[in-house]
Design goal:
about 450 residues, 6-stranded mixed beta sheet, about 20% strand, binds ligand BES, binds manganese (II) ion
């Protein structure tokens, strides 16, 4: 296969413009006010897949948002790569922290991205990374170099738990049959340190509600004499970690996969600068579970974090009140062998059991999913490794990530194939945060690297 570099150089302005058009549509799956925009995005993806050379593209209806499916089958005897990505994005708020509006993409250069980065919600997660695959396909089809079959499955509910995708995969196993699943929805260590994500954490997401008195009360008349749901909730939450930052829920660690000393030593070889890490976040020091390094804390260890907490009076000025209710949203990141449904149950039982008299507690599970690890001796991993080597001039480092793409474990269960996570984002791209961006260099490098994966995967499958 020829290097895609020349083609990328010739077409890069158009590649950037097309992505910018896609980023203008606010496909926020969490907020039903954007329903039409989410659907409009699925139509735009369909059109782009047709233009890139898919023979058959359809918008598949589901109980939720549609899944865009496209394929190009050149020879049933050749291997098939299934590309997965998502066209939905996270809500952009808090809006006032964005330097430019989240759905009006602009290109600006930064210290890490001297060639410029596209600032917009979804630029990295995942429209930009997903679109690299569409453009890589365009390169391969328009230059007659597609070496194998390809299927695309792009969903619109990843950021809210991929419920409809699970439904779709269970019902379409034959249609989705493949030899390897390829995803770009993760990151790499640094531009000069390519890496392949070999693990994802699982997730259990719950919402809790603490109810005290039957109405909001005057905090002078009743203060001190009844349980204040906010005081109680914060104390209950604080008790979920001990002084060593271990999680105190009984049974929480029972099934946690323990890495061997050798595996941990191997992990520690990945470059990491605590100084750069703390500086990038403007924090004095890191914080986390005793006995583990930062890289371990955010990948191979389970966590529990409050993602939002509210109740009482939060408007301007002061109002003296004891609220009747307090709420929090809590996520638990899980590691291999922890079962997310079991963890959700353990959380619920424990949280209800620690509630003092005078309040009632309701725990509502949201979504969840299993962790994932992929071996590095598979053909898929080896092909990806060679692809990076061809375009970065360096062997990529395998690295387990702390993020979650819960559907990956389900793919393995339902479709019986391994997923290769070729991510081109950087931690500093601020996914889910204000000012999300994606480096143009990363975007183009992705488009250049992906065709090499197809090439090596087809070669090595013979
Ligand atoms: N692309 C991310 C996951 C990710 C990012 C994994 C970077 C590894 C490195 C994905 O869109 C995401 O945000 N997933 C959610 C889970 C989902 C169920 C809402 C997450 O990890 O919070
Ligand atoms: Mn994503
Ligand atoms: Mn995301």
């Amino acid at each position: 296969m020829d290097s895609a570099k020349a083609y990328v150089d010739q077409n890069k302005d158009r590649f950037i413009d097309e992505l910018i058009e896609l980023l203008k549509i606010p496909s926020i799956s969490a907020d039903s006010a954007y329903k039409d925009d989410v659907i409009k995005t699925s139509e735009a993806i369909k059109e782009s897949l047709e233009k890139a050379g898919c023979d058959q593209v359809e918008i598949c209806e589901t109980p939720g948002y549609p899944i865009v499916y496209g394929e190009k089958i050149i020879d049933p005897d050749l291997p098939t790569v299934l590309v997965y990505g998502h066209y939905d994005v996270q809500p952009p708020d808090p809006l006032d922290l964005w330097d430019s509006p989240p759905f009006e993409p602009v290109i600006k250069s930064t210290e890490l991205h001297p060639d410029g980065a596209i600032f917009a919600r979804g630029s990295c997660d995942d429209k930009g990374q997903m679109y690299m695959h569409v453009k890589a396909l365009e390169y391969m089809t328009s230059t007659g170099q597609l070496p194998c079959n390809v299927k695309f499955m792009i969903e619109g509910e990843e950021e809210v738990g991929s419920e409809s995708l699970g439904w779709f995969v269970e019902r379409n196993q034959e249609k989705l049959a493949n030899d390897v699943i390829l995803i770009s929805d993760t990151g790499m260590i640094a531009k000069e340190i390519p890496s392949i994500t070999t693990g994802l954490r699982g997730l259990s997401y719950v919402e809790v509600e603490v109810t005290g008195p039957n109405r909001d009360l005057h905090s002078g008349l009743y203060g001190g004499a009844v349980a204040n749901p906010i005081n109680v909730l914060t104390k209950m939450i604080a008790s979920l970690h001990d002084d060593n930052k271990h999680i105190t829920i009984p049974g929480f660690y029972d099934d946690v996969e323990e890495l061997t000393t050798e595996e941990r030593a191997k992990m520690a070889e990945a470059p990491f600068s605590k100084e750069a890490y703390t500086k990038a976040l403007d924090i004095e020091d890191v914080y986390g579970e005793e006995g583990y390094t930062t890289n371990e804390r955010n990948s191979i260890r389970p966590t529990l974090d409050v993602n939002g907490i509210w109740g009482g009076y939060t408007g301007e000025g002061a109002k003296t009140v004891i609220a009747s209710k307090a709420y929090a949203k809590i996520s638990m990141r899980l590691v291999p062998d922890q079962n997310w449904e079991k963890i959700t149950e353990l959380f619920k039982n424990h949280f209800e059991s620690i509630a003092p008299k005078g309040v009632t507690v309701k725990v509502t599970p949201h979504h969840g999913g299993q962790a994932y690890v992929t071996p590095i001796d598979s053909i898929g991993y080896q092909a990806a490794s060679k692809a990076y080597e061809a375009t970065f001039g360096k062997v990529p480092i395998p690295q387990r990530s702390g993020g979650s793409i819960p559907i990956v474990a389900l793919f393995e269960k339902e479709l019986k194939s391994k997923t290769i996570l070729m991510g081109f984002g950087l931690d500093s791209d601020a996914i889910h945060s204000p000012n999300e961006h994606f480096g143009i260099w990363n975007y183009l490098k992705g488009i250049e690297t992906i065709p090499m994966f197809y090439h090596y995967f087809t070669e090595m499958s013979k």
